[in-house]
Amino acid sequence: MTVLDLLDELEDIINTAPNVPFSGKVMVESEDVREIISDIRESLPDDVKQARWLKSEKDRIIDDAKKEYEKIIVEARKQADFLVDNNDITLKAQKRSDAINDAADEYSRQMKMKTYDYMDKQLYDMQEKLDQLNVTYLTNMFNYIEKSFQDMSDELQKNRDQLKELAYRTKNGEEWLYSDGGEQEDQQ
User: Fold this and answer.
1) For 173, left (φ over 0), alpha (ψ -120 to 50), or beta?
2) For the chain, where are the alpha helices, taking DSSP H only?
3) What does DSSP assign to residue 152?
4) What's the Cα-to-Cα distance from 162 to each of 21, 169, 176, rounded to whole Å?
5) In DSSP terms, which residues pair with 26 in a beta bridge?
6) pLDDT in tens, 23-72
7) First and final CA of the chain: distance in angstroms?
8) Does residue 111 contact residue 61 with C-beta atoms inside 8 Å?
9) Which residues contact 112 (CB under 8 A, 6 or more apart)?
């Protein structure tokens, strides 16, 4: 499964989880969530492998451009050596050789720039995807989980406070069986 599939599965678990009564919260199986998070961690290395492949592809393209450049240089030298017989021919050959060298240098530079642009675009796209995953899923998920735990903690503290109040009333012999409405009836 891809990271996006796993995040969709996690979102489905949260969306289909039963509600906790009177709290607006949901209950999820922590083991299911942990398993999905583990699967996400296992899937991330595939993205790293893709980045490594892109780097090796860039190196291959640059090497191909260098080989092409060297072939052009060798060809230019062969032509120059052939034309060395006559001074006039030698000058023309030198000019031609220089033009070929300049063309080869320009071609090599253009190939390198295209390779750098291509690799930069690939890396930028991957970075955008990772940033999107982080913002879209992980940040929201962690914020939601953190808020859920805080809400549960607040609710538990509220319940403990009520229990302490009941214990205090019982200790002092007060009637605690009824809510505040029952106490008001006793006072009237």
Assistant:
1) left
2) 3-16, 30-82, 87-133, 140-171, 180-187
3) H
4) 18, 11, 11
5) 19
6) 888 888 889 888 888 887 787 777 667 777 888 888 888 888 889 989 98
7) 68
8) yes
9) 62, 65
**Within 10 Å of residue 6's Cβ, how many Cβ atoms?**
20
Query: Is residue 171 packed enough to be buried (19+ CB in 10 Å), middle (13-18) or exposed (0-12)?
Result: exposed
How far is residue 7 from each of residues 28, 141, 154, measured CA to CA in Å?
15, 9, 28
| Structural contact between residues 34 and 10, judged by C-beta atoms closer than 8 angstroms | no
Supply the pTM of this predicted model.
Answer: 0.32
DSSP state of 135: I
Q: Crossing angle for the helix pair 87-133 and 3-16, nearest 10 degrees?
A: 10
Q: Which two tokens stand for residue 17?
A: 């989880």
Phi, psi of 112 (to 5 degrees): -60, -45
Contact 124, 133 (CB under 8 A): no
State phi, psi for 2 to the nearest 5 degrees. Answer: -85, 165
185 pLDDT tier (thresholds 50, 70, 90):
very low
Is a pLDDT exceeding 90 seen at residue 154? yes
CA 29 to chain centre: 25
pLDDT at 84 over 80: no
Report the C-alpha gap between 83 and 133 in whole angstroms: 62
Structure tokens at 106: 């320009």
